[in-house]
Amino acid sequence: MNKIIFIFVSLLVFGSSSAAENDVANKRGENLHNTHCMACHNNSIYTRKKRIIKTKLQLVQQIKGCDHQLSKNFNKQETKDLIDYLNRNFYKFK
Predict the structure, then answer these.
(1) What are phi and psi of 71, to 5 degrees?
(2) What single DSSP character describes residue 71?
(3) Which region, left, alpha or beta, applies to residue 48 given φ > 0 means left and ψ of -120 to 50 means alpha?
(4) CB 66 within 8 A of CB 28
(5) How many angstroms separate the CA atoms of 28 and 55, rounded?
(6) Which among 44, 53, 79, 91 is least buried, having the fewest CB atoms inside 10 angstroms?
(7) How far apart are CA 38 and CA 16, in angstroms?
(8) What is the mean pLDDT of residues 33-49?
(9) What tens digit of pLDDT does each residue of 63-84 get?
(10) Which among 89, 87, 88, 26 has a CA at the least distance from the CA of 55?
(11) Angle value at C-alpha 37, between 47 and 35, nearest 5 degrees
């Protein structure tokens, strides 16, 4: 019985930790987006009917292209956070 309780509590703790980490990463992505992306366009670019980005791979390529053009030099974590933020909040690719 103690083993079952331990497993249950562990799942709650680690599950919450993972959710909290996702929230932090999403906030970092949002901050990057608001600081860098919003300088060129607003959110309507992600929701327009004829949007250019139709796959997650295209999203990744677009972020890397913008990063290169603007010489932002995002590190791997920043790039991931930004992609995850855009996907979670606008594109919803799997």
Answers:
(1) 55, 45
(2) T
(3) beta
(4) no
(5) 22
(6) 44
(7) 31
(8) 91
(9) 999 999 999 999 999 999 999 9
(10) 87
(11) 130
Mean per-residue pLDDT over the chain, rounded: 86
pLDDT in tens, 12-29: 555 545 777 788 989 999
**Phi, psi at residue 72, to the nearest 5°?**
-80, -30
Q: Is 8 exposed, middle or buried (0-12, 13-18, 19+ CB in 10 A)?
A: exposed
d(CA 37, CA 90): 14
Structure tokens at 17: 């930790």
Helix, strand, or coil (residue 66): helix
